[in-house]
Write a structure and sequence with these properties.
Length: 333
């Protein structure tokens, strides 16, 4: 008991956005101190050698005795030990590599995960060194971080498009009234781009190239000025490296399935919203957060499909972790 008290004196309360693509860390009193890819590089025996940005540089480029993996898939833990090691690394990084720490941690989880998956996140966080863990659903954290008035007796709508999941929720009086979660988000978009380039251009590209294409010329709706991008890959027939130019119209076509899936889950959520809250949403519109909010003209696409006003959060990538940070402020209350 005394040891836990002693550790608490040296520990900073932490908020974590445990994303499929990126992990962001918020420290009470300091703000966001870390934002790195959710990637771990390990040796054959499973011992970790790199985390975050350093490990991501190794994706698809490692020799046989080293592997670089994403320990989370579709918003949930796919590799428990690697997730634990990654959390431990970032907790200690925040505390300047001191191991004598046991912080309280608020950590985000997808809305639609199972009790077993929730338990896995909690156990991994405790094993990484937390003395107490508070789980918060990503749409609630995103809404708080985006500045929506979630505690008011009024409906507000958030769409959080992350790497592994898209979370859609209607909130009122501090709670989630209705929510839906689908495993169509940034990673699925990358996969559809990879498949499109392979099928249409007979070229094999990796995840990093697909992500770069998505960020540079990806779009959900017709652009006023279409874009192009030069990419490199391996030709399927000859096996030789080849350069091609891809157009934003092509990538928009490649993204049709995941974008439509997101639009459809938004419509489904709106259809199930109580009438009194629907009138609030009709007046205030929809807030979009997460990395997917950066897809060009996504707001125009959602507006065209729903007829509602669509706003993109001021800093969509940090909404969830900022939400965990605001919750940290109220833990003692």
């Amino acid at each position: 008991m005394f040891l836990n008290f002693l550790k608490s004196l040296f520990s900073l309360d932490i908020g974590i956005d445990l994303g499929t693509a990126n992990i962001l860390v918020f420290v009470k009193g300091k703000g966001i101190v870390c934002s790195e890819p959710s990637v771990v590089a390990t040796r054959e025996d499973g011992s970790p050698i790199a985390f975050g940005a350093e490990a991501k540089m190794m994706l698809g480029k490692t020799p046989g005795e080293i592997k670089a993996i994403r320990p989370l898939k579709d918003g949930v833990i796919a590799y428990f030990e690697e997730t634990e090691d990654m959390l431990k690394y970032f907790i200690r990084k925040v505390h300047n590599k001191h191991s004598f720490v046991a912080p309280r941690i608020v950590i985000s989880i997808p809305y639609g995960i199972t009790k077993v998956e929730r338990k896995a996140v909690e156990e991994a966080t405790l094993a990484a060194g937390a003395r107490k863990v508070y789980l918060i659903e990503e749409p609630r954290a995103a809404a708080i971080g985006a500045g929506l008035a979630v505690n008011e007796p009024r409906g507000c709508m958030i769409v959080d498009i992350g790497g592994g999941t898209t979370e859609v929720a209607i909130l009122s009086l501090g709670g989630i009234v209705i929510a839906n979660s689908i495993r169509y988000a940034g990673d699925k978009m990358d996969q559809h781009i990879i498949e499109y380039i392979r099928n249409e251009h007979n070229l094999l590209i990796g995840e990093r190239t697909a992500e770069s294409i998505k960020l540079n010329i990806g779009s959900a709706f017709q652009l006023e000025e279409e874009l192009t991008m030069d990419i490199s890959g391996r030709e399927i027939v000859s096996g030789l490296p080849r350069n091609i130019t891809v157009r934003s119209e092509e990538i928009r076509q490649a993204l049709t399935v995941p974008i439509n899936a997101i639009v459809n889950i938004i419509k489904l959520t709106l259809e199930k919203t109580p009438p009194e809250l629907s009138s609030d949403i009709a007046e205030d519109g929809i807030m979009i957060a997460g990395g997917g909010a950066l897809i060009r003209a996504l707001d125009k696409k959602i507006n065209a499909e729903t007829g509602l006003k669509v706003k993109i959060a001021e800093d969509p990538l940090t909404c969830v972790v900022k939400g965990t940070g605001k919750i940290l402020e109220t833990l003692d209350k």
